[in-house]
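Re: the request from the purification team.
They wanted to know what the chain is likely to look like in 3D before they choose a buffer screen. I agreed to run a prediction and write the result into the notebook, where they can find it.
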Amino acid sequence: MIYDVRQTTTCTYASPAAHARHVLRLMPINRNGQRVQVAALQITPEPVHRREGKDFFGNRLTWIDVDEPHKSLTVRLTARVAVEPLVESDPVTTPAWESVREEAFATGDMGPLSPAHFLFPSRMVSLDPEIRDYTRVSFAAGRPVLDAAIELMHRLKADITYEFGATTVTTTPPMSFALRRGVCQDFAHIMISGLRGIGLPAAYVSGYLRSSPPTDESRLQGADAMHAWVLVWCGADAGWIGIDPTNAILASEEHVVLAIGRDYTDVAPIDGVLVGAGEQRIDVAVSVTPVS
């Protein structure tokens, strides 16, 4: 499937900012099953300095400096991305989760997508004992890792209510798990905390879902906005498999990957500092439209 991706992100300030320096993670990446055909960012006001690069995990970064007073910053992404159909693995043929855990801790690979980087606590994901115990219910002794992860995904979907505004971007997994409410970021962080808590590698994915009509009964939670899901490492043969706990589905050709990291802080779309006073508001509009 080929998509035209459009995203407009607008940061509005209570009073003009005299200067701003940001790092943007708003350019989709090339990876297995996904190819970026073209992508461009338009930034207003025009930065005085701008450069492109990548981080350790291969995410595309844009560093900008704006040195004129401005009451808002607008970033517009225009991209065309090809996503291959999902090649489903049979969950019951994946290795037992205990063997995947042993393989992950024994790996000598230190490359960007090595499971070693996604085993331990990160800035926003602690190894919470309550989430760990909740996760263990799905991981009986000897159970195939993907089969267990899919059951966990369905339990999270059933037990946690998707509610915009119940949490904020800084809400931690133990907080959203206690509330049993949250958005896609919370679903992803909770699942990552639980999987890492039992020794399984899990990564955070930022991206988009295919847009669909508001009245479509098959409409997914998180469409027409930025979305988040999880990559679960299922051993060297099966590799990384995408799981979307917000919608209780495997990540498929309806998912477009923007960035991958250990948690939200590794993939935050706009980060940095500005010289100004007062509050700020961020508005995001997204469309992911199939190319006919």
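For the purification team: The radius of gyration is 19 Å.
Please add any questions underneath this entry.
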